[in-house]
């Protein structure tokens, strides 16, 4: 009798399983894939929140619009309030489990402390922290979300596909949310995030360049060429550079490189040495052909490209120190690691722009491609 | 106090089972949050704290096995009367009961919180708790050998996902996150080791498992292996948290190692969200530890107060613990209580057993002379 009672209790418990309350029918959910944030001219509702929502029925069909998503924009105090407002117009439960991109317009990025937006991403258990946060230079996030994707069924997918090749493109700063928030926290708000722009009369998106942070807000931009220079120090992507020797113009493909920032304290004076090493191949010769099977030819070209890369790195350092005055290349972090006591004594923001930086570049050419 | 152990001591266990018992018993929900506590104390040197704490835990394990080996057919509550005298042995037993009841309550509370955040946010919190408690009562009523065998069955479901998570995480670890080493001196490392030691609840099971082992003396090696596998898991948790999230984010996040899964991305794998890898080990870890602590609490009460109705005590102990969770007003309080329990752990796994060993040696108390 007692056993029967226990069995009945257990069987009756089966009627109360979690599914009754937490039943999540896929057909009853609306998946948000991207969120756009723009500043609104409203004292109370300071934020225009745009959502890209997937229309599952269109995912496997070719339709005239060529897009399987819809973009909705609401004006609210923050993302949560915006979602709540949007939910009243969507007949399905909004879900953030497939959200991959947060796009932030320039005005918003310059006004709002990024910590507040990051807090939403980190606190919400539905949001995967491997989202990419992109900052729009000279435009609004909703304009990015409203473009017609060219190679994907919805905008977020196109953006994510771009981020996947981003680490191999030196013209772009590849730094997903995880890396950005880590840098910002470690430096008290200095960082180097991903930049997105609209080109071709607002029809094409370009994920290149970088957004420079100071005190948790975007305070400057790097264009593609400047980002390429900065990536010699902070990036991993291989890239091509051109150099001149005599009448000839040569293209060098840097396949591997490493850079280290070493603080040097001599006689109480701080300076830095950037040590850079690379290896790659010559991919093109114009105007003049050298015999690349001769070691002396390669030596000459190595010197040329060492000089070119030195100048690139110097430009990157100058941009950071003299033009923007923000240490987004990691000089402060290097000093803090090697000499934390010394770093603590400094007012880094004031010290950084005038610290001498010496650059030592060693370029290697180990291949000449398929013809000499 | 009753000198008899109420469950089947005739069902003897091989000393090698201690490896699994220790791992499954110790690993629980705190596995996903211990990095935060240690990093708050030691910063980027948290890994050194875990190594230091591991040395101390290994030494403590040696002392616990030495104590158990002096009384191979008795558990702590049985021989504490001989070592300390009756009144003090009651004080010791009641101290353990309070510790276990608090620990059991906080584990139920943590399960409730995790359910609300990660898994079943609309389900009334009492439902999963009751289901878990019923399962635990059923298992515990069969005694420690049955619990041990259940642990052996569950072991792969606990260890394999954890191993997989660590393998997937390791390539994202940034080594420069750990430098400079000991920039703030040795004191934070020591504090971190103190915190880490306090996280390792349930090591005291060694003092209650001995009567069920065929040869207690042979359990030293498995015990050391078991505790050091736990140390290795903890070390990998701390290394991946600091190496992937960075020191400051680890301090900010409530469950850094659970949050860390959201950062993982493995190119080429169709799986996008690795949070699901957490579900199984989390459930196994929490349920098994709840079972063990419920066993220690209820069988301890049965033994010390000589109760006859074993099942009633188990039901009441689990029922009170489940109900007590509703008296913890919010998450901040449950963290406070968890911190208190972590400090009390020092008493449960180190101070009381080591003092008992010292007094037993001084007074020449030994149950069995080979």
Q: In words, what does this structure look like?
A:
- The complex is a heterodimer of chains A (372) and B (370).
- Chain A has 372 residues and is of the alpha/beta class.
- Chain A has helices at residues 2-14, 19-22, 79-87, 106-111, 114-123, 141-145, 155-165, 177-187, 224-234, 295-324, 331-338, 340-345, 348-351; strands spanning 29-39, 47-54, 69-76, 93-95, 101-104, 132-136, 191-199, 204-206, 210-214, 217-222, 239-245, 248-266, 269-286, 357-367.
- In chain A, the strands form 2 sheets. In chain A, strands 1, 2, 3, 4, 5, 6, 7, 8, 9 and 10 form a 10-stranded mixed beta sheet that branches. In chain A, strands 11-12-13-14 form a 4-stranded mixed beta sheet, sandwiched between helices.
- In chain A, strand 9 and strand 10 form a beta hairpin.
- In chain A, helix 9 crosses helix 10 (295-324).
- The mean pLDDT of chain A is 89.
- Chain B is an all-alpha fold and 370 residues long.
- The two termini of chain B are 27 Å apart.
- Chain B is globular and about 60 Å long.
- Helices cover 70% and strands 0% of the residues of chain B.
- The longest helix of chain B has 34 residues, at 86-119.
- Chain A binds chain B through residues 9-10, 13, 16-18, 20-22, 97-98, 122, 125, 127-130, 164, 178, 181-182, 185-186, 337-338, 340, and chain B through 117-124, 127-128, 130-131, 134, 176, 179-180, 183-184, 244-249, 252-253, 259, 262-265, 267, 272-273, 275.
Offer a few descriptive terms.
heterodimer; A: 372 residues; alpha/beta; ten-stranded mixed sheet; four-stranded mixed sheet; 13 helices; 34% helix; B: 370 residues; mainly alpha; globular
Q: Decide which structural class fits the backbone of chain A.
A: alpha/beta
Q: Largest interface, by Cβ-Cβ below 8 angstroms: which chains and how many residues each?
A: A-B, 26 and 35 residues
Mean pLDDT of chain B, as a whole number?
A: 91
Please count the beta strands of chain A (DSSP E, at least 2 residues each): 14
Secondary-structure element string of chain A? HHEEEHEEHHEHHHEEEEHEEEHHHHE
Tell me, rounded to a whole number, the average pLDDT of chain A: 89
Quaternary structure: heterodimer
Distance between the termini of chain A: 93 Å
Query: In percent terms, what proportion of residues of chain A is strand?
Result: 25-35%
Helicity range of the residues of chain A? 25-40%
């Amino acid at each position: 009798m007692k056993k029967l009672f226990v069995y009945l209790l257990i069987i009756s418990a089966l009627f109360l399983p979690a599914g009754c309350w937490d039943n999540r029918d896929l057909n009853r959910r609306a998946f948000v894939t991207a969120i756009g944030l723009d500043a609104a001219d409203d004292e109370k509702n300071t934020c225009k929140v745009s959502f890209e929502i997937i229309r599952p029925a269109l995912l496997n069909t070719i339709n005239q619009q060529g897009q399987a998503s819809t973009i909705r924009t609401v004006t609210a105090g923050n993302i949560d309030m915006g979602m709540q407002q949007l939910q009243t117009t969507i007949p399905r439960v909004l879900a953030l489990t497939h959200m991959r991109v947060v796009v932030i317009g320039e005005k918003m990025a310059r006004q709002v402390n990024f910590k507040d937006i990051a807090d939403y991403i980190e606190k919400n258990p539905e949001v995967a922290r491997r989202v990419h946060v992109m900052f729009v230079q000279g435009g609004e996030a909703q304009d990015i979300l409203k473009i017609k994707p060219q190679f994907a069924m919805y905008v977020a997918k196109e953006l994510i596909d771009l981020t996947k090749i981003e680490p191999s493109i030196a013209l772009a700063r590849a730094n997903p949310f995880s890396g950005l928030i880590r840098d910002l926290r470690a430096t008290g708000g200095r960082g180097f995030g991903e930049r997105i722009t609209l080109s071709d009369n607002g029809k094409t998106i370009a994920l290149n360049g970088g957004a420079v942070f100071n005190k948790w807000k975007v305070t400057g931009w790097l264009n593609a060429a400047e980002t390429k220079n900065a990536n010699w120090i902070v990036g991993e992507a291989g890239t091509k550079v051109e150099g001149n020797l005599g009448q000839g113009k040569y293209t060098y493909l840097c396949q591997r490189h490493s850079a280290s920032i070493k603080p040097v304290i001599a006689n109480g004076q701080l300076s830095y040495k950037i040590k850079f090493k690379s290896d790659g191949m010559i991919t093109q010769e114009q105007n003049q052909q050298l015999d690349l099977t001769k070691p002396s030819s390669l030596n000459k070209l190595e010197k040329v490209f060492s000089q070119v890369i030195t100048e690139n790195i110097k430009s990157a350092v100058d941009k950071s120190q003299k033009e923007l005055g923000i240490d987004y290349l990691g000089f402060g972090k290097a000093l803090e690691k090697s000499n934390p006591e010394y770093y603590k004594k400094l007012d880094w923001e004031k010290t950084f722009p005038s610290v001498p930086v010496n650059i030592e570049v060693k370029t290697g050419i180990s291949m000449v491609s398929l013809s000499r | 106090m009753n000198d008899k152990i109420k469950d089947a001591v005739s069902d003897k266990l091989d000393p090698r089972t201690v490896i699994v018992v220790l791992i499954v018993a110790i690993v629980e929900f705190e596995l996903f949050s211990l990095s935060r506590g240690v990093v708050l104390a030691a910063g980027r040197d948290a890994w050194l704290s875990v190594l230091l704490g591991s040395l101390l835990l290994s030494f403590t394990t040696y002392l616990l096995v030495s104590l158990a080996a002096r009384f191979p057919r008795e558990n702590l509550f049985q021989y504490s009367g001989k070592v300390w005298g009756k009144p003090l042995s009651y004080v010791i037993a009641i101290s353990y009961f309070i510790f276990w009841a608090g620990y059991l309550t906080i584990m139920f509370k943590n399960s409730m919180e995790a359910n609300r955040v990660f898994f079943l946010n609309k389900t009334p919190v009492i439902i999963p708790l009751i289901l878990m408690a019923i399962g635990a009562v059923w298992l515990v009523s069969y005694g420690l050998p049955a619990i041990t065998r259940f642990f052996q069955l569950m072991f792969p479901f606990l260890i394999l996902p954890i191993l997989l998570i660590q393998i997937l995480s390791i390539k994202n670890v940034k080594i420069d996150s750990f430098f400079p080493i000991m920039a703030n001196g040795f004191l934070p490392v020591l504090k971190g080791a103190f915190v880490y030691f306090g996280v390792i609840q349930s090591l005291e099971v060694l003092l209650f498992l001995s009567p069920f082992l065929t040869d207690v003396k042979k359990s030293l090696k498995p015990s050391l292996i078991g505790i050091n596998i736990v140390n290795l898991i903890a070390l990998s948790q701390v290394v991946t948290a600091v190496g992937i999230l960075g020191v400051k984010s680890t301090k900010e996040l409530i469950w850094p190692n659970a949050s860390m899964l959201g950062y993982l991305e493995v190119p080429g794998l169709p799986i996008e969200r690795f949070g699901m890898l957490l579900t199984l080990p989390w459930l196994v870890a929490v349920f098994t530890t709840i079972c063990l602590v419920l066993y220690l609490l209820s069988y301890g009460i049965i033994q010390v107060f000589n109760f006859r109705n074993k099942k009633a005590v188990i039901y009441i102990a689990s029922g009170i613990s489940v109900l007590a969770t509703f008296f913890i007003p919010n998450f901040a309080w449950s963290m406070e209580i968890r911190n208190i329990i972590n400090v009390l752990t020092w008493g449960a796994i180190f101070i009381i057993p080591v003092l008992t060993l010292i007094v037993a040696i001084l007074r020449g108390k030994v149950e069995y002379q080979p």
